[in-house]
Design a protein that fits this description.
The chain is mainly α. Among the domains are: about 15-145, Serine Threonine Protein Phosphatase 5, Tetratricopeptide repeat, CATH 1.25.40; about 485-564, no CATH class. Helices cover about 80% and strands about 0% of the residues. α2 (about 35-45) runs antiparallel to α3 and α2 packs parallel to α4. The longest helix is centred in the middle third of the chain and has 97 residues, at about 315-410. The two termini are about 40 Å apart. Residues about 1-15 and about 25-30 have low confidence and may be disordered.
Length: about 575
């Protein structure tokens, strides 16, 4: 199954555009170079030829503004790649990357990373290509450049396809399909369906491959002739695999008629070879020698080598076998390195995001602790105020006691004043009694407040330990499902910890679920988490320990909970 990602660029442009471009070219001075480059950037997707015409009228070496030189280099590189021409060297795009990095121009930097990756890919520097495409991916996602992200997903899917990283191929082809739907671009959607189909074909999941290919057929009128030809030859491959050779040949001939392509000729050669017409097969294969798809070229070399061996042309068979060995060596050398580079980028990003979320959580906990401390300090001040009042009353009580003693000593001397003093003593004693009651009340209040403070401290400690325990449990289960290991033995309470952990590490996605669906069960949330990780139905079934039928019914029940 072909996996062609070339874009057919329209060669024509409207008369008004031509007039505008020519007017700019005739007046291309230093003062309007910025406008010329702006125009070139505006029309590059519609007409890379016109972009290159504008650039040829600009003296790159005479440019004084570094930002303009950087933009020139980006446009020059991207226009040539859109025309399927790779610049002789990458000095221009390297300079663009340097300037955009220094100027914090994230949009043009993400695009520059992408085209650096495209150049490296064209030069079969697959490891370098993976490195720059991953840089472009994270930068475009972070700043919301959905168009750039979309084409990065497409290229990463193809890069992993030719380096035999099948899991990543499927992951990125599905991301490409999802982002194409988000952009509501039927051309991209059609191309993405073909990519997903090719991804499933690469892992011999024919049913899934046929499903996505048939889905892509609904968009065949929205795609260019190149992709239409690719779709038809892929359908031909599907019929070939099913043994429906006549239908296979019919689609291959249609494909080659719409847009002559090596893949169609290779399939026609396979058909003739199967039917025993090796001469006709060899004629088709001779026409297919210009093929650029590494995976198909690999299959091509296998068949041609077998053909030459069968007809006794052992020299040519040996020559083709050497080419096949060289191609396999190239793929095998790059495959592991490309995979490791991508996973390294993903791990670093995940760890960074997890660190930030944990840091935010700790900051919130810290601020809550500060607020509690302030609250406690306020109560401590009130306690100190109560203590001060108690001390004052105690001192007054001592004063009253002293006065009573003084009055008692003077009783014998002032008999005639006994009645008065007795009355005063009685009053003092009454006040003392009141003060003692106040003291008791205040002491009781003090003990109550201190007890409240102690309970608050205990509650805070218990709450913090509980939060950290639940987060740790959720993280442990998350690592289990990331390794695609079953979680059947985990209880709903354990799975709640997983869901709570996922809320922290991927709050944006979880919030979208809350908006999209009415309340779901914990196991339905776990199902959504597995799908968001890019797992297919087989992986989901293995992790949950359920049948394929249960997976489909779960998806259906969740869909029914979609908010209207």
């Amino acid at each position: 199954m072909n996996y062609n990602t070339n874009i057919n660029i329209k060669k024509s442009y409207t008369p008004w555009l031509f007039v505008t471009v020519m007017a700019i070219l005739m007046s291309c001075s230093q003062s309007n170079i910025s406008k010329s480059l702006e125009m070139a950037e505006h029309i590059i997707n519609e007409s890379p030829d016109s972009t290159l015409s504008i650039l040829r009228e600009i003296d790159y070496e005479a440019l004084e503004d570094n930002q303009l030189k950087a933009l020139y280099g980006l446009l020059y590189t991207s226009a040539n790649i859109k025309k399927q021409k790779v610049p002789d060297n990458d000095s221009l795009i390297d300079y663009s990357i340097k300037i955009f990095e220094n100027n914090n121009d994230s949009y043009h930097l993400a695009d520059s990373y992408y085209y650096k990756g495209m150049m490296s890919y064209a030069n079969k520097q697959f490891e370098v290509s993976a490195q720059y495409l991953k840089k472009a991916e994270y930068l475009s996602i972070e700043d919301g450049y959905s168009r750039i992200t979309n084409k990065i997903y497409e290229r990463l899917s193809y890069l992993n396809y030719i380096t035999d990283n099948t899991a990543l191929t499927l992951e990125y082809s599905k991301k490409f399909l999802d982002s194409s739907f988000e952009l509501k671009d039927r051309t991209l959607i059609g191309r993405a369906f073909v990519m997903v189909a090719s991804s499933y074909a690469a892992v011999n999941l024919s049913d899934s491959a046929y499903y996505y290919l048939e889905s892509g057929l609904r968009y065949i009128d929205d795609v260019d002739s190149v992709l239409k030809a690719d779709i038809l030859v892929d359908v031909g491959e599907m019929y070939y695999d099913k043994g429906e050779i006549d239908m296979s040949k019919n689609n291959a001939l249609q494909s080659d008629f719409i847009h002559p392509n090596p893949h169609a000729k290779m399939l026609l050669g396979k058909i003739e070879y199967l039917r025993g017409d090796t001469i006709r097969a060899n004629e088709y294969w001779d026409h297919a020698l210009s093929i650029n798809d590494v995976k198909i070229k690999k299959e091509f070399y296998k068949m041609v080598a077998n053909y030459y061996a069968e007809v006794g042309n052992y020299d040519d068979a040996y020559t083709i076998s050497l080419k096949l060995d060289s191609l396999n060596d190239t793929i095998n050398k790059s495959s592991k390195t490309v995979q490791e580079l991508q996973l390294k980028f993903d791990r670093a990003k995940s760890e960074s995001e997890l660190y930030q979320k944990i840091l935010y959580t700790l900051i919130i906990a810290f601020l809550a602790s500060i607020a509690l401390l302030l609250f406690l300090r306020f109560h401590q001040r009130r306690v100190r105020s109560y203590n001060s009042t108690i001390n004052t009353l105690t001192n007054k009580n001592e004063t009253y006691k002293s006065k009573i003693e003084s009055f008692s000593e003077r009783v014998s001397m002032y008999q005639h004043e006994i009645g008065l003093y007795v009355s005063k003593v009685s009053n003092y004693e009454e006040e003392i009694s009141k003060n003692i009651e106040k003291i008791k009340i205040l002491k009781t209040s003090d003990r109550s407040k201190q007890k409240e403070i102690d309970e608050l401290k205990d509650n805070i400690s218990t709450l913090y330990k509980s939060i950290m325990s639940e987060l740790q449990k959720g993280h442990t289960i998350y690592e289990v499902i990331k390794n695609k290991k079953p979680i059947v033995h985990y209880s709903d309470e354990d799975l709640n910890s997983l869901v709570d952990f996922y809320k922290i590490i991927n709050n944006k996605v979880f919030s979208s679920w809350l908006e999209r669906y009415t309340p779901l069960s914990v196991r339905q949330y776990v199902f959504l988490i597995l799908e968001n990780l890019g797992y297919d139905d087989y992986d989901v079934a293995d992790v949950l320990g359920v049948s394929d039928t249960t997976v489909r019914s779960t998806r259906s029940r969740i869909k029914k909970k979609t908010r209207l």
